[in-house]
Every structure is written in structure tokens, then in C-alpha cells.
Design brief:
The complex is a heterodimer of chains A (289) and B (357). Chain A is mainly alpha-helical and 289 residues long. Helices cover 74% and strands 3% of the residues of chain A. In chain A, strands 1-2 form a two-stranded antiparallel sheet. In chain B, helix 2 packs across helix 11 (248-261), helix 2 (35-61) packs antiparallel against helix 12 (267-286) and helix 3 (69-85) runs parallel beside helix 5 (121-141). Chain B has one domain (33-353). Classes of the chains: A mainly alpha (289), B mainly alpha (357).
């Protein structure tokens, strides 16, 4: 039981990282990136290629995969998203990123086939043994990694000039543009960052779960649930919701049955939204649209 | 319709065109008897019905639903479960279950709509995705659906050469029904209310439109033909599995078909489904590689979004009426069958979703 709570907190940190990318993109650009799930899987496959074929350690490999995913994000934003009309961006973006997601799924299927694979390293199979709990190294390392990256995003948002432009765009795009923020550039870089964090999320996910090109659906439905529960556009909300949900899922898996654990996820969404349509940590109703 | 219309006016021309299209559709399986061709035709008709039904809700209200596969799967599973539990023997009488499956989809749509429609457009899309995954998960995990091993549906022992024909005509019936719903809804008070919601929900509310009731009614109504299509699909395939009955590609396909043909129009989803689904089935028969197909499909979708964002029919009719207007220098009348009511917006999704906040 307590073991389940600890596991939930540790994996929740990783989901928080992936969800933070999603909610950051929504906040700045009003775009719901349905491809976030498949980007996580793409990140996992990149780590897989580096570790299996080039023998590069998973964490060291992030130095390559994160910039690579950043470039992927920037290219996707520049080629597809930025060309969508200014009106109705959100609905259009859902359709466009969904299309991008199934294209990437198809490409991954062509390259890697549908067989499940897992990432391996010495720290994947071993665990700490503390106070009678088993803490797999990879959970702990993954949590630390997520915390570091989330801290970096926080510092970037609140301590840098660029972060100030991001927050200005979050609050009001046109007002930000009026005071001289290059909103398009901010949007492109934000999209890149939002996608780059999936490289890290994907690596940890791939090391703790087996995955294939279809795994993206499962991931995106969880991530969307987390982001909606946290209130669209709220990074703190995404963190809270991610940890809450993963703890809840792990506890249900132990107390009830692992089969029904994912179901709780969506049941929580339905219940919370019936009571509070803006999500648990939702801000003003304007954003809750 | 043997009488040749004396005046070649819009209305008569349209009625004649409709009659001709119906005649072609009715004769089709008698002319093209190749089972491969008629099987493609059955799938195409099922998607024409589904895309039209999707449009009844999403096209008219502007609330994009990515969860209509829930209704498709519900219809398919109801059909399969009832046929299995009661040991029903295969035959034409089994088609009587099709409307029942449609009603079951409507029953599911009521609580689904009550929860999802509490939110506005963006969140609504996400919730429809989430509810869809709940149902897929239920199909995988419930005892009654037999999980991932799926359910076998009894197969009629009809002659292989005409095997597809009963399925064809039942599917055609669903298409006609869905189109009739779409057509009459559009001309009803409820249809006007839905379009008002699409244009500006807050103002519509202010003017006394019962927005919640109207949206829920359209949502439940649009579930009916989709559930029926799902039942025919299950019967036609002879077995169903959770991942095919509740398929994310189904959700995406109906949106793409409606978008491609022209969202909010009556003929658009029909035409979009006719073109895309027959093409897709042809591809599946030609290349069995599903992954390559995903890439092509995604690429096509993106191309439509970026290059033809208003859909084929509105683009073509606009072009034609502009040319006609140039020739006769008179303002061309808008065709209610092919044009969304109200001022055409610059972006298609303006038509899809109404106004962004």
C-alpha cells in the first residue's frame, strides 16, 4: 500500500514532466498537442536505437535525443502548426496533431515493427532497499531527472527574459505582441521545449514499460486526462494532477486489481468534470474553454 | 421518377439528381457482382452513414466529437452479445437487431453527453477522446465482451456470390435514414438552434435558445445511425475485437471524411466518405501493410487541413457560383444542400467550431 504510494509519486513525477510540456504548449499557443503521446514513444525509440546500436548510456543519450526532439518539435510547429489559420487554432490543431501522430506511428511501425521492446541498462533491473520498500533505481533516477528538468523549466519561466515573454504570451497573446514580444518565435521555441521534454519522459517510460508504436494512444489519453484535471494551461496543476492520478492508479492496482487501475483514471476525469468543469486547479473560466 | 422535369430549375434538377444517385446505388450490386467490389461498397456505405451522423452533431453545433467510435463499438458489441447470448441463428431476421443496436448507442449517448457537454469546445474534444478510451478499455476487460479474444458472430450460409447484397441494402437503408435525419434536422427549429450555437453560443443562450437541451438532443440523435452501422459491421465481419470495434482511426476517419467533403453541409460527409472510404478499402486490398497506410492517411489528412481547409464541396460550389456570377453578373444563389447556412467564414473550422473565445 505505502509501496504503491511511493511508486505512484515516483512515476507521477515523470508523467508530470510529459504533461508539463503539453500544458505549456497549450498555454502559450492554445494548441492541444495530441501527438505528445507518440512523441514520448518516438523519444523512447531514439533512446533504444542509441543504447542498442551505439551502446550509449540512456541518460547520456538524452544529450542527443533531447536536442533532436527539440528540432522535431520546431519543425512540426513551423511546417504544420504555424500554417493553420489564426482562427479556430485549437480545434484545427487537435486534428493536425492527430494526423501527425498517426503518421509517426506508421513510420515507427515501418522501421521497428509492432513488437514490444524495452530499454535496458544496469539500473533498470536493480533496486534500492530502504525501510522495507523496494525502490528500483530507474524510478528514483527518473524522478530526479524529471525534478531537475521541471526545475529548469521553472527557472527558465521565472528567471529569464525569455521566460517573461513566455509568461506574457500565456496571459494574453495580443497584449504580449503589443509590448514587443515576438510571439511567433516564443511559440516555436515553446513547442520545441514542450516536445523536447518527451525525450526524457520517453526514456524513463521505455525503461519502466515495454512499448511499441501503438503505445502512444494509451499515453496521450492519460496525459490529456492529467492536463484537463490540472486545468488546461496550468503547469502547477499538471504536476499536482499527475502525482495524484498516478498514486491513485497504483493504489487501486494494489487494493483492487491491476486490470481496473487505468479505468480509475478516466472515472476520476468524469467525476471531477461533472463537479468542476474547469478542472481541479483550473483558473478563470475564460481559460477553461 | 419517370416524368422529365419541364423546368430545369434548381429544385427539379436536385430531385432528379437525387433520384439518379439512388437508382445508381440500388442497381450497383446487381451490375458489379464481384464480391470484392461489393464488400468495399458495404464498408463505404457504413462510413457514409457514420460521417453523416457525426455531422448532425459536430457539423451543426461546431463541437468536434472524437468519440463517435464509442457508439459504433456499442452497436457492434450489442449485436454480437445478443446474438451470442440468445444463440440466434444467422439469417435476414438477425438484421432486426440493427435498430436495437442503434437505440443502445443512444442510451449510451445520454450520460456521455450529459457529462461531456458540461464543458465547452476544447475540453469537450478531449473528454470525448477520454470517454472513448474508457469504452475501449471496458471492452478489453469486461467478462461479457470476452476481452481481447473477441466475439464470433454467426455467419449466414448465403451463396458467396450474393452474400454481400443483403448487407449492402441494409447499409444503404442506414445511409438514407441518416441523410434524412440530417436533412430534416437542418430545416427544423432544432437545426436552427444548433447553427445558432455554432455561430455564437453565448448570444444564442441570451436569445433564449435552450443550448444544453439542443446539444444533447443532437448528440443522442447522431449516435443512432452510428450504432446501427456498428451492428451491420459486426454482422458483416463475423467477429469483433475491442481494438476494431472501438478504433481511434474510426473517430479520425469520420472527421476527415466530413472535413474533406465539407463540414456542416448535407452532401459533404456523404461525398467525403464515398471518396475516402472506397480509396482506403482499395488500398487495404492492394497493400496489406497497415503502417504504410497510416503514413499515407495521416499525410492526406494534413494535406486536406492545410490546402483544402473548407472541404471539397464548399470550395467547388464557391468556385462554380463565382464563375456563374461572373458570367451572368448576378449574385449566385447559395445551394442549401452544399453550403453551410450563414456567412461563410474564412476558415473551415470556423464552420466546424463556431467562434473561438
Amino acid at each position: 500500500m505505502i509501496q504503491a504510494v511511493v511508486d505512484g509519486v515516483l512515476t507521477g513525477g515523470v508523467y508530470a514532466l510529459m504533461a508539463a510540456g503539453l500544458t505549456l504548449i497549450f498555454g502559450v499557443m492554445d494548441i492541444i498537442n495530441v501527438a505528445q503521446g507518440i512523441f514520448v514513444v518516438l523519444g523512447a525509440y531514439l533512446s533504444y536505437v542509441l543504447s542498442v546500436h551505439l551502446g550509449i548510456d540512456l541518460f547520456v543519450g538524452l544529450l542527443i535525443t533531447m536536442p533532436a526532439m527539440f528540432v522535431v518539435g520546431v519543425v512540426v510547429q513551423w511546417v504544420f502548426i504555424s500554417r493553420l489559420g489564426e482562427r479556430e487554432r485549437t480545434a484545427m490543431s487537435i486534428l493536425a496533431t492527430y494526423a501527425i501522430a498517426i503518421m509517426i506511428e506508421g513510420i515507427l511501425g515501418l522501421v521497428f515493427s509492432d513488437n514490444y521492446v524495452e530499454l535496458n541498462a544496469w539500473y533498470v533491473t536493480r533496486s534500492y532497499h530502504v525501510f522495507g520498500f523496494y525502490l528500483p533505481y530507474i524510478y528514483v533516477f527518473g524522478f530526479v531527472l524529471a525534478a531537475v528538468l521541471l526545475g529548469a523549466i521553472y527557472l527558465m519561466l521565472y528567471k529569464t527574459r525569455f521566460g517573461a515573454s513566455v509568461r506574457a504570451s500565456l496571459q494574453d497573446r495580443s497584449a504580449a505582441r503589443l509590448v514587443g514580444v515576438n510571439v511567433d518565435r516564443v511559440a516555436t521555441i515553446t513547442f520545441g521545449i514542450g516536445v523536447a521534454v518527451t525525450a526524457a519522459g520517453g526514456m524513463v517510460y521505455g525503461a519502466t514499460n515495454s512499448f511499441n508504436p501503438n503505445t502512444g494512444y494509451d499515453l496521450i489519453s492519460r496525459l490529456l486526462t492529467i492536463v484537463i484535471l490540472g486545468g488546461l494551461g496550468s503547469i502547477g496543476g499538471a504536476l499536482g494532477a499527475a502525482v495524484c492520478m498516478l498514486v491513485l492508479e497504483d493504489v487501486v492496482a494494489v487494493v483492487w486489481s491491476p486490470v481496473w487501475a487505468p479505468f480509475v483514471f478516466f472515472a476520476a476525469l468524469v467525476v471531477v468534470l461533472s463537479v468542476r468543469p474547469t478542472g481541479l486547479f483550473g483558473r478563470s473560466s475564460a481559460r477553461a474553454q | 421518377m419517370r416524368r422529365v422535369p419541364s423546368v430545369v430549375g434548381g429544385r427539379n434538377l436536385k430531385a432528379g439528381g437525387l433520384a439518379a444517385a439512388m437508382a445508381v446505388l440500388i442497381v450497383f450490386p446487381l451490375v458489379f457482382t464481384n464480391p470484392t467490389v461489393t464488400s468495399i461498397a458495404v464498408f463505404t456505405l457504413l462510413f457514409m452513414a457514420s460521417a453523416t451522423a457525426w455531422n448532425v452533431f459536430s457539423g451543426y453545433t461546431g463541437y468536434v466529437s472524437l468519440g463517435h467510435a464509442t457508439f459504433f463499438g456499442t452497436g457492434a458489441y450489442l449485436f454480437a452479445i445478443v446474438a451470442m447470448r440468445f444463440n440466434l441463428s444467422a439469417g435476414s431476421s438477425l438484421f432486426a437487431l440493427v435498430p436495437v443496436a442503434g437505440v443502445a448507442a443512444m442510451v449510451v449517448a445520454v450520460p456521455f453527453g450529459l457529462v461531456a457537454l458540461r464543458t465547452r469546445r476544447h475540453t469537450f474534444v478531449v473528454i470525448t477522446i477520454a470517454v472513448f478510451f474508457i469504452f475501449q478499455m471496458l471492452a478489453f476487460n469486461l467478462g461479457i465482451t470476452q476481452g481481447s479474444s473477441g466475439i464470433q458472430v454467426p455467419t449466414p450460409n448465403w451463396s458467396p456470390w450474393t452474400f454481400n447484397n443483403p448487407f449492402y441494402y441494409v447499409s444503404l437503408g442506414i445511409v438514407v435514414f441518416a441523410t434524412a435525419v440530417s436533412y430534416f434536422l437542418r430545416r427544423s427549429v432544432l437545426g436552427l438552434q444548433l447553427l445558432a450555437i455554432r455561430e455564437d453560443e453565448d448570444r444564442a443562450r441570451g436569445l433564449g435558445v435552450p443550448a444544453g437541451k439542443a446539444k444533447l438532443t443532437a448528440f443522442v440523435l447522431s449516435a443512432l445511425p452510428v450504432g446501427m452501422a456498428g451492428a451491420v459491421y459486426a454482422y458483416f465481419l463475423g467477429q469483433i475485437f475491442p481494438q476494431f470495434a472501438f478504433s481511434p482511426l474510426f473517430d479520425l476517419s469520420v472527421v476527415l471524411m466530413a472535413l474533406f467533403g465539407g463540414i456542416g453541409t448535407i452532401a459533404g460527409p456523404l461525398l467525403g466518405a464515398l471518396l475516402l472510404e472506397s480509396l482506403q478499402q482499395y488500398f487495404t486490398f492492394q497493400f496489406s501493410n497497415g503502417d504504410l497506410y497510416l503514413v499515407i492517411y495521416g499525410g492526406l489528412f494534413l494535406a486536406v487541413l492545410l490546402l483544402l481547409p473548407r472541404g471539397v464541396i464548399p470550395t467547388v460550389t464557391d468556385y462554380l457560383s463565382r464563375r456563374r456570377a461572373r458570367r451572368s453578373s448576378a449574385p449566385a444563389a447559395r445551394d442549401s444542400l452544399t453550403q453551410p447556412i450563414g456567412e461563410p467564414r474564412t476558415s473551415p473550422i470556423a464552420i466546424v467550431t463556431g467562434k473561438a473565445p
